[in-house]
Amino acid sequence: MGQGTNLTTTDLPFTDAGIQTHARVGRNTTATDLLRLEYTMESQDSRKYAGKPITLSFYYRTGAGFSGSSVTASCISGTGPDQALRGTVTGYTNVINTTFSPSTSWTRVSVTGTCATTINQLFIGFYHTPIGSTSTNDYFDITGVQLELGRVATPFEVRPYPVELQMCQRYYQRLGSGLGNVCPIQAFLKGTSSTEFSGYVSLFTIMRILPTTLIITNSTGAITSSAVYGASLTISGQLFLYANQNATMTTLTFGNNNNFQMMLRTFSTGATGIAVHQPLELFVANGFSLDVSAEL
């Protein structure tokens, strides 16, 4: 999912075909920037479509104040490995690029195309460019998106929730969420001096690659601190050590000295109130969450 300027995405109930949610993409200002909802497929999942026909199917509807003449659905191919659509895509080609007329009722549509034999990656996108200054109910809804081999759209496949969750956690994990109370993080830590500690933090499942970004958010979802993998995450009360009530830290760094993607090496050089060899627990403070990302 790509999030651009003036984009509002919400998750609302929808029950047709066993689908529970849908995405709403619209504007809440008078801006007329292109609105986009995008998904990047990994190369290992894309190569099976090379040289073959594909079908993209989905449900959509538009708001009562939809200002555009159509919603555009695209399937884009690239020849580079594991690139992100928000950046530069080598060999960018529209395999599918079709417009659909506004409709305030849910409608399932499908469109076909044929991939070149040289593709190495696929991307899916939905687009709308607002017109005018009235933003009330100017949105489109999308759900039940499915890409498959062949020229016939089959019924939407609903996977079991635990399977879907584990697949999502391959790209993004919330290690701890202290929303309403403090939350422990599964970690194995010990003091290495009076100001340093090290150890490992466990992940819920193997991620796509070693995480690229560490993120702390508050209760509204706003980012309060972030760092690229291997850099120091600034801590100002969002995380704490439960060795005793006075143990604190000012930075936290996640690194890894091996390729085992289920465990992150963790260390800090700005801690106080700890001792050598002292076992430590890591907690997320009330009102904050600690996330790791391995997104494309």
Can you offer a commentary on this structure?
- The chain is mainly beta and 296 residues long.
- It folds into two domains: 8-158, Jelly Rolls (Sandwich); 165-293, no CATH class.
- Helix content is 4%, strand content 45%.
- It is built from two helices and 20 strands.
- It has helices at 43-46, 161-169; strands at 8-13, 21-26, 35-40, 53-62, 71-78, 93-100, 107-114, 121-128, 139-149, 172-177, 183-191, 197-202, 213-218, 223-228, 232-234, 239-241, 251-255, 263-268, 279-284, 288-293.
- The strands form four sheets. The chain has a seven-stranded antiparallel sheet, with no helix packed on it. Strands 1-2-9-4-7 form a five-stranded antiparallel sheet, with no helix packed on it. A four-stranded antiparallel sheet has the order 3-8-5-6.
- A hairpin with a 4-residue loop joins strand 13 and strand 14.
- The chain is elongated.
- The N and C termini lie close together (11 Å).
- Mean pLDDT is 87; it is low at 1-7.
